[in-house]
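subagent[fold] <- orchestrator: predict structure for attached chain, return tokens only, no commentary.
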Amino acid sequence: MNDITQEDFLKIVYEQPEQALESFNNQISSRKFKHQYVGTCDDGRVKTKITCYNQWLEKEISVITNNGQIGISPFNVTHIARLNAHNKQDELIVIYGYFAEEYLRERDENVYIDGICNSLISGASEGLFGGYDRFIPEYKDTKPLRQLSFDDLKELLIDPWHVLAIEALSCGTFICTYGEQIFNIIEEVNLDNNLFEQLIALEDEKIIYSCKFPEVKDRLPIPSMVDLWREDAYGPQPDEAYEKAKSMGLEDGFRN
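subagent[fold] -> orchestrator:
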């Protein structure tokens, strides 16, 4: 922002829409992005389509603020971001970026205009994530992820030396070693929607245990893990849940 603070701009948005639009146009005239008013939320927040030229994809992509297309997660005092952007053909392109603004707490995403634009311009898509050379060709001959069945998942849960890790940003699933202070990611695997729903149901019924997995946070941004409900590690399991777990062969064999 050049001649007006974000707080003053937001105040104008809600009190003087015409003046706000003129002021907004004036102050962003030199910025490398396009904007278009889309609508207004029920709570008064303005939906704005922001379009930038992504330097890695070498084409324009857009995202709409206050429309469920922008997700941010704390990273120290700043944030990492995932944007569900779209190209001119309205095809979804997931972009990962970085918001340098500290301690973001506002619900109105128009406050984060710098982070949004920087992510649209410099953020990497899933195909280029981790790459810094736009001309690096993607390796196509990759081995497909192993599809887990329920029996595979059951075997993994019973195994005391391995757990299933789930990364919240990408929804990726990984088999990790566990125990004796060794936490290695050994394989990325695939769970279909039905298996994911079964996993959630097992957790809701307290048949399996789920918690954060900070031991692999240096490799997975927002990890959690699921494991058999082991009472020596996770505390007492409800009796009804234990009986159901036992009927499924998912009980803790060392329960007192």
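orchestrator: received. Logging for downstream: Residues 130-139 have pLDDT under 50 and may be disordered. The helical segments are 6-15, 17-27, 113-122, 150-158, 193-204, 231-234, 239-247.
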